[in-house]
Amino acid sequence: MQSPRDPGDSYRLIVTRRSASEILLSQEGSGWTLPRVGIQPRQRVAEQLVSELHGEWGLETYCLFVPNAPNFGRNGGGTEYAVMESVRQNDKAPAGTCWMPPSAAADCSGAGEAAAVRESLEELDSYLRGERHGPFARPGWLRELFRWTEEQVAPLGLRVTGGFRQWNASPTFSLVRLEANDGALWFKATGEPNSHEMPVSLLLARLFPSHVPRILGIHRSWNGWLSAEVTGTALDEISDHSNWERVAGELAELQIASVGKSRELLDGKCKDFRVAEIVKFIDPFLVRMAEFMAAQEKASPAPLAKSELASLGEGLKEACSLLQSFGLPDTLGHIDFNPGNILVSPEHCVFLDWAEGCVTNPVITFEYLRRHMERGGVKEPAGDSRLCAAYLRPWAAFFSPDDVRRALAVAPAVAVFVHAIAGDTWRTLDPVSNPAFAGYFRSLTRRMYRDAVRAAEGSELCLD
Questions:
Q1: How many CB atoms lie within 10 A of CB 125?
Q2: Cis peptide bond upstream of 301, omega within 30
Q3: What is the C-alpha end-to-end distance of the chain, expressed in Å?
Q4: pLDDT (tens digit, 9 = 90+) per residue, 151-173?
Q5: Which stretches within 81-192 are classed as H helix?
Q6: Total-model pTM
Q7: For the chain, what is the radius of gyration of the CA atoms?
Q8: Residues pairing with 108 in the sheet
Q9: Cα separations (Å) of 72 from 12, 77, 114, 199, 316?
Q10: Residue 2 has pLDDT above 80, yes or no
Q11: Rounded to the nearest 5°, which phi and psi values hold at 382?
């Protein structure tokens, strides 16, 4: 689980070219300053920076990284900094700006900007010298990506046209859409803690090619891969309930196709959330949640008492025991099974972003789909019953529908629990110094408790 970063509303941009031997400065009164753009918080930072810089200054760029240096960030009302590179190395500077050597930053309007430029370029040099690992913090990587992509797709009769859209940017992560003469291509690369996503994606493309994007090339030194763009509409943009039912049915078909492949999936770096494994985390997790509850400062919502946490532990263990008793096989699962990761077309449904791919009880993944439909405001009479029926239909040929229904009834609390333990944050987080994340985990735990109580009221579970 990666820590969310609130980007604020203002960025000063250190736009480089010619291997960072020049930076772009904007005239401000009698002096010079870094270009500034405003972006929306809690949206993709790199995509917005590139778009705003092009819209305001007419300059085509891509983002290298947001500097780590703590000494200059947030001076002057929350201003952040980002290091960019111009796509074209020899174009004339936009009106009111000038390409200058970095030493000219000493004449910027404030000492904070001069320090930002100096420390950011020192960080960039550390990537160039290999002192830090980060292929996407190095100037020129986009040109290299275009050359490499051409080599991969030329035998397929494709060629890139030069158009691109950068979605994510960091030294070790990248997500770029590349325009081609026939459709588009996607390049994705991941670093820690998601470096396993590449082998998982390669394995799933081999085992289940009709349900995941087709992979056209592998860039191993970048831990990246090239995929053909999938036609379709993201499920979170669709309100027609029949499409949600189709997704439920195709999820079941994918899971059934994965039966018997658990060892291959685990060897391929899928996470291990088999029920027998997740039970081992219940007690340690709830010990940590007791610490999180004790650190809560607000009176409302009330923190769970130790007795309630103990009851939750018993409820989770009993739910896991029941899931195992129904005899459903372990299958491929997806802990981030949200509608933004699901593309629907008339021909098929394709599932994306497998960093949270796992082996688990099949109803866990379906529970995430149910909850997203509930929160997404998809209104349909008996919508949840119809979604469950669509999911049950493929399973009915192999297992008792009653057993699958019983599994669905006890899944909610377990699904939230699996989501909570999917990363190491619950182990390492200091609830005092990270109150927002601590509050998030407290909220998840209260939700588990409510789900467990509801399951107990409607089944043989018994919570005190």
A1: 12
A2: yes
A3: 33
A4: 999 999 999 999 999 999 999 99
A5: 111-128, 141-153
A6: 0.90
A7: 25
A8: 32
A9: 11, 12, 9, 38, 47
A10: no
A11: 55, 35
